Input
Amino acid sequence: MKKRQFLRYVGSAAMAAPLFPITASAGETHESLPYPDKDSEAFWERIRMDYRLKPDYINLENGYYNFVPTPILNKFMEHVREVNYQGSYYMRTVQWENKNKAAARVAQLVNCSEKELVITRNTTESLDLIIGGFPWEKGDEAIFAVQDYGAMQLHFEQMQKRYGMVCKKVSLPNHPKSDDEIVELYASQITPKTKLMMVCHMVNVTGQILPIRKICDMAHAHGVEVMVDGAHCVGHIKVDLAELDCDYYGSSLHKWLSTPLGAGMLYVAEKHIPKIWPLLAEHEDDETKIRRLNHTGTHPVHTDLTINDCVDYLELIGMERKEERLRQLQRYWSDQLRNVDNVVINTPVEPYRSCGIANVGLKNMKPHDLAKTLLEEFDVWTVAIDFENVHGCRITPNVYTTFDELDRFVAAMKTMAKRT
Output
């Protein structure tokens, strides 16, 4: 059996894997195989076995949703069955205690106090809670980038219509000359009326990592608070909120932490909690408690329970090891295409300015046509990005992606680059 056929086979067979953690005994099938030396390629081949992969295409669009590896999926289904079994008894007794435990686990992962973090449904909800709950007054100013996620930009514009605050936008260069260039770009828009700045930790359309601590230090020196969009960061790169020193941080856990759909996190520095108005009224009336911002009503609590399993799986891999692997995969394909005629890489060349995400376009093909051709002709699934200064496809491999698959993608890009 050829290697690729074998990997597809084990990917499909992994659907039957037992619950995490996985241990091995002699004579058992691959679902019970131990994880080899974590610094070997065999380790990543074993990780790939934990994923059930469609054979129809190479999935290079993991940025929208990192679908759940089978050991976590089995745990998730176990939680679904248990909550369904207990019914309202579970909901009226331990649901909040368990959600708080999950929040505390994420707080430990990102290095903040559990008093400053709650579980939400996604980054949009997290950051919109701040944008909509900020004590705006007429004439107040907010700064953000045109490359930022659209939902948050729209919410700022809604606040502009509602309160008369002012939205000021910058445009991020795809290839900054230095950190200072980025810091000065935001600093140039600050006035005595500036109250809040939104900054991407990792720009979702290009994968560019911004110098968050330097931006925060600059903004704080001007009395401006910083809200960070970290949608793609938790479970992707090391996130240390104490080191970043931002005021607010949101992330989607169903992205690189690979929770089931519908899990996110919101961090609010403790000193700011009292001034943010909740979107929905909560029974918690202590204005110093972050839970007052987290009324979600009845929701899929089994997703909350699975967060712990996802952190377990991340710890099995190792955060630093995962970050290194994702950067290795991205650099493997992007370095091969950076000097190819008609190819445009929209992600900085410096390794520390990106990790697993990068964006590539062709001068001779529009992004929509590029994505369509990649899928229909070369069996590669990705997503087109075509706005502002970003024209290409966002490429997001995951820990199960092989170098053989990336070779096929690179060959496809080189083939299309030669077409007139």
Residues 132 and 210 are 24 Å apart (CA to CA). The chain has 14 helices and 13 strands.
